[in-house]
Amino acid sequence: EVQLVESGGGLVQSGGSLRLSCAASGFTFDDYAIGWFRRAPGKEREGISCISSRNGNTNYVDSLKGRFTISSDNARNTVYLQMNSLKPEDTAVYYCAAVRGSLAPCWVLGGVLYYNAVDYWGKGTLVTVSS
Length: 131
Hints:
Blueprint: E1 3-7, E2 10-13, E3 18-25, E4 32-39, E5 46-52, E6 58-60, E7 68-73, E8 78-83, E9 92-100, E10 106-109, E11 112-115, E12 118-121, E13 125-130
Parallel strand pairs: 2-13
Antiparallel strand pairs: 1-3, 3-8, 4-5, 4-9, 5-6, 7-8, 9-12, 9-13, 10-11
């Protein structure tokens, strides 16, 4: 059974930090990239970061570069998203997903993160940043 399980969300004050985890199982981890996405209240889902499991290449949406860091522990089939200097506008449900393609699955164009087809989604973890 394919599973992507996010954890680490919660309530944090503005300026604080959280580290989200995405534990993957049931598929060949190296064959995919793992992407982080978020959906803020009343907004469309957006891709925010992506990491290739095979070569470690990372991409970020321009607006979050410098505050968020994605990393991968391939031995644990787990991807992390370190979020620093959080702002109330970062409040959202954060999802991880398995993005098809291990070498160039994501790219940034015009500041927006684009990505290949997503084969599997997690159920999400809620991050709430209070002002």
